[in-house]
């Protein structure tokens, strides 16, 4: 669609834009679903918002409008260099929007053939992850974290579990030397916590990953970095570094929030917990319900209009930023079938179109394994505070709990790893004389599946010990 002729003829952008609703501070913490409902009632499926004072944008909360936005790359580009706010000098250098909107040579910022090239490399790389190994790694990481908690039967699942587990898994997928594990964890934590030290952490993280890329370029291994470097599309070292940052940082936050929001659902929704313990529902069902009701990323920037157009009844100017209202679009009544959300996976929590999240399958495996391990080890887990006292981070992007305090008493130990076996060859017998029953000394001790799993648990326990200050 195009702007009406009487407006286009003026040669000026549309000047009747409604006042934007602030999408920062505490606007989204108390009742985000109520906010989206009010925006839909007042403005329709595309609502005017402010991302910070003086920085306007559009929030797309209509299900069909979201599909149009994500599928029409020619009209709505992923390239943020066309954004008119920074071009007009209205974006502060220290704005919290910079990390989320700055153009980088990654699949998140590309359209068309370039996006296809980059997404092929990332998609093929993620497809090479051994799901059995990923499940074992996640279970071992979850166990190491749970076993590190004190003896008093209390824990904060956000600080002591959800924020740490994905990072532990990533250190193994990258096959980092043990001495690089703690610095990587510290730097990623510094970046995602958005502290005054975040810029230094971001620069140091890029430096650590650049060093890793150089080592893997010289000597490839069986890990994510090597798979990106050796992919046939021929990524440059800079492209690999930037995509590792995307996988580590952008992929970390949704996984953290998905675990936390699902555990919250299980601990606060008696109906769902009863269905789970009674065998009528599964953890996978809980994961899907969270993706509808409280997706880990509730809003995401974004798309930038390449020319004046109309979407959802709103006149959009060239260079405008449109934010994907993932949670708001899920709330759109037109998105729900006659049976509600049961068995319905048509949510938009992963986005839509060509830019749908490429890591959704391994992310689901990590989250499901983490929660199953948690519930297996702590079957009487319960909230330590009333549900209404739980608070959320005031982020326009993430749907993230600030803490999730729990109580537990029973502890079910993990399944033990198979014992290590030493390979040996019987000595030839002479005549009828019996030989010594002791096997001969082996010339080598091959690594078995059990020894590999034991070694994995040891490394993860070491990292958890460092993280806990031991």
Detailed description of the structure:
A hairpin with a 2-residue loop joins strand 2 and strand 3. The protein has 470 residues and is of the alpha+beta class. The protein is built from 19 helices and eleven strands.
List low-confidence stretches.
1-15, 417-448
The amount of beta strand, in percent, is 5-15%
Could you say which structural class the secondary elements and strand pairing correspond to? alpha+beta
Based on DSSP secondary structure assignment, what is the total number of beta strands?
A: 11
Helix content: 40-55%
Distance between the termini: 61 Å
Mean pLDDT: 82
Overall, the morphology is globular
Quaternary structure type = single chain
Strand order, main sheet: write it out. Answer: 1-2-3-9-6-4
Largest sheet properties: 6 strands, mixed
Instruction: Work out the radius of gyration.
Output: 25 Å
What would you say about this model in short?
The chain has 470 residues and is α+β, with helices and mostly antiparallel strands. The protein has helices at 5-8, 32-43, 63-71, 84-87, 98-101, 112-127, 131-147, 157-162, 165-173, 181-192, 198-218, 224-229, 237-250, 252-268, 270-277, 283-293, 326-331, 360-377, 449-467, and strands at residues 21-22, 46-52, 55-60, 76-77, 154-156, 300-305, 309-311, 314-316, 321-324, 382-383, 405-407.
Keywords:
470 residues; alpha+beta; three-stranded antiparallel beta sheet; 11 strands; disordered N terminus
Give the arrangement of secondary structure elements.
Blueprint: H1 5-8, E1 21-22, H2 32-43, E2 46-52, E3 55-60, H3 63-71, E4 76-77, H4 84-87, H5 98-101, H6 112-127, H7 131-147, E5 154-156, H8 157-162, H9 165-173, H10 181-192, H11 198-218, H12 224-229, H13 237-250, H14 252-268, H15 270-277, H16 283-293, E6 300-305, E7 309-311, E8 314-316, E9 321-324, H17 326-331, H18 360-377, E10 382-383, E11 405-407, H19 449-467
Parallel strand pairs: 1-2, 3-9
Antiparallel strand pairs: 2-3, 4-6, 5-11, 6-9, 7-8, 10-11
């Amino acid at each position: 669609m195009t702007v009406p002729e009487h407006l286009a003829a003026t040669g000026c952008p549309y000047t009747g834009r409604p006042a934007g609703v602030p999408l920062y501070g505490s606007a989204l913490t108390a009742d985000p679903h109520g906010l989206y409902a009010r925006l839909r009632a007042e403005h329709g499926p595309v609502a005017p918002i402010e991302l910070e004072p003086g920085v306007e944008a559009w929030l797309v909360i209509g299900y069909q409008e979201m599909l149009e936005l994500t599928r029409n790359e020619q009209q709505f580009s992923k390239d943020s260099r066309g954004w008119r706010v920074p071009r007009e000098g209205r974006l502060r250098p220290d704005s919290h929007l910079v990390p989320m909107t700055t153009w980088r040579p990654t699949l998140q910022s590309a359209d068309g053939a370039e996006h296809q090239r980059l997404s092929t490399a990332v998609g093929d790389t993620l497809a090479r992850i051994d799901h059995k190994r990923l499940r074992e790694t996640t279970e071992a990481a979850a166990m190491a974290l749970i076993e590190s908690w004190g003896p008093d039967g209390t824990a904060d699942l956000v600080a002591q579990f959800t924020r740490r587990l994905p990072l532990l898994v990533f250190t193994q997928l990258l096959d980092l030397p043990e001495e690089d594990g703690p610095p990587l964890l510290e730097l990623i934590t510094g970046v995602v916590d958005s502290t005054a030290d975040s810029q230094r952490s971001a620069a140091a993280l890029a430096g650590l990953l650049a060093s890793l890329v150089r080592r893997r370029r010289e000597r490839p291994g069986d890990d994510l970095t090597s798979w990106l470097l050796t992919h046939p599309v021929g990524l440059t070292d800079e492209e690999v570094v930037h995509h590792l940052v995307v996988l580590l940082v952008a992929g970390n936050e949704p996984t953290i929030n998905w675990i936390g929001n699902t555990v919250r659902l299980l601990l606060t929704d008696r109906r769902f917990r009863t269905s789970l313990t009674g065998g009528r529902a599964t953890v996978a069902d809980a994961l899907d319900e969270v993706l509808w009701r409280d997706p880990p990323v509730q809003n995401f920037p974004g798309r930038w209009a390449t020319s004046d157009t109309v979407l959802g009844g709103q006149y959009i100017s060239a260079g405008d930023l449109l934010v994907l209202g993932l949670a708001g679009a899920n709330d759109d009544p037109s998105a729900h079938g006659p049976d509600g959300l049961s068995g319905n996976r048509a949510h938009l929590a992963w986005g839509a179109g060509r830019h749908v999240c490429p890591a959704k399958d391994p992310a689901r495996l990590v989250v499901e394994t983490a929660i199953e391990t948690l519930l297996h080890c702590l079957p009487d887990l319960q909230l330590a505070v009333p549900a209404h006292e739980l608070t959320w981070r005031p982020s326009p992007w993430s749907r993230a709990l600030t803490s999730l305090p729990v109580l537990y008493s029973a502890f079910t130990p993990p399944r033990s790893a198979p014992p290590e076996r030493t390979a040996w060859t019987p000595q030839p017998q002479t005549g009828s004389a019996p030989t010594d029953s002791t096997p001969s000394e082996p010339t080598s001790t091959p690594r078995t599946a059990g020894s590999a799993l034991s070694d994995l648990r040891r490394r993860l326990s070491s990292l958890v010990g460092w993280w806990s200050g031991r």
